[in-house]
Amino acid sequence: VAIFVTGMIAVITVGWQSSRAALANPVKSLRTE
Questions:
Q1: Which of 4, 14, 29, 31 has its Cα between 20 and 30 A from that of 20?
Q2: Residue 7's pLDDT is what?
Q3: What is the per-residue pLDDT across 1-33, written as a single tens digit (0 to 9) for each?
Q4: Contact 29, 22 (CB under 8 A)
Q5: What are phi and psi of 25, to 5 degrees?
Q6: SS3 assignment for the chain
Q7: How does DSSP classify residue 33?
Q8: Residues 6+ apart with CB under 8 A from 22
Q9: How far apart are CA 25 and CA 5, in angstroms?
């Protein structure tokens, strides 16, 4: 259970960071991929 919760937190954190970066500067985020 602890591993599952840790994994979910990691996925949410990465998703939030990437989505916030994409909203802040979509051109830069597309260029880095």
A1: 4
A2: 94
A3: 999 999 999 999 998 888 887 777 767 666 665
A4: yes
A5: -150, 85
A6: CHHHHHHHHHHHHHHHHHHHHHHHCHHHHHHHC
A7: -
A8: 29
A9: 30
Enumerate helices (H) and strands (E) in the chain, giving the number of each.
2, 0
Reading the block at residue 24, the tokens are 């802040």
- Dihedral sign computed on CA atoms, order 22, 25, 30, 33: negative
Token pair in block for residue 13 = 């954190």
Q: What count of other Cβ atoms lies within 10 Å of the Cβ of residue 22?
A: 14
Q: Tell me the two tokens of residue 17.
A: 């960071």
